[in-house]
Amino acid sequence: MTKAIELSNVTQAYLEEYQKILNKMMQGMTYVTITCSISENFIKQIIPHQIAAIKMSENVLRYTTNIPVQNFALEIIKTHSEIVENLEAIQNRCCIVQNSEYELYEYMCAFKEITEAMFQAMCSPPNSNSINVNYIQEMIVHHQGGVRLAQNVLRFCICQELIPILQCMIKTMCCQIDEMQKLLEGLQDC
């Protein structure tokens, strides 16, 4: 069994705010009134996920002095704010596309499996006293979950306006995952 690391006061403050952001994301994604529209359900479920990425990035910016991490966090804030705006712009129109009970059941089963794995990984205790490393590791898991959630919804009959947003979201998050893995290698070499 590995011994828990001793966390600095700064790391503890960062992690306390991170936990608040995570709790709000989990609640926002989980406590959604489910309708017969997978498109509508997904939009309501993914917006808290995207907002969490923004809040996590704002949180790390309060503490980090690492310029590549600062630049990456600013990129996250910009791209995920655009995604939220695009989703909110089509939300009222997308609820018109309805799905069968079977499709809804299949969608929700996969959604629960993906979110439970993501939540569990994001709630894992930090293995570093480095805020930068913690942020990147948390965000990688967040993005991997987001990609899987977007891929899941694309399996169904959904609002046509949602499809290009999902494709852009997947591409953006996959590129950001690659960027984070390179950043993480550099941080762990320090």
Description:
77% of the residues lie in helices and 0% in strands. The protein is mostly helical. The protein has one domain (19-189): Ferritin (Up-down Bundle), CATH 1.20.1260.10. Helix 5 packs antiparallel against helix 6 (162-189). The radius of gyration is 17 Å and the shape is elongated. The model has no long low-confidence stretch (mean pLDDT 94).
The percent range for helix content is over 70%
Q: Multimeric state of these chains?
A: single chain
CATH homologous superfamily label: Ferritin, core subunit, four-helix bundle
Round the mean pLDDT to the nearest integer and report it. Answer: 94
**What is the correct CATH architecture?**
Up-down Bundle
Radius of gyration: 17 Å
Q: SSE order, as H and E?
A: HHHHHH
Indicate how many domains the architecture comprises: 1
Q: DSSP strand (E) fraction? A: under 5%
Q: How many angstroms separate the termini?
A: 26 Å
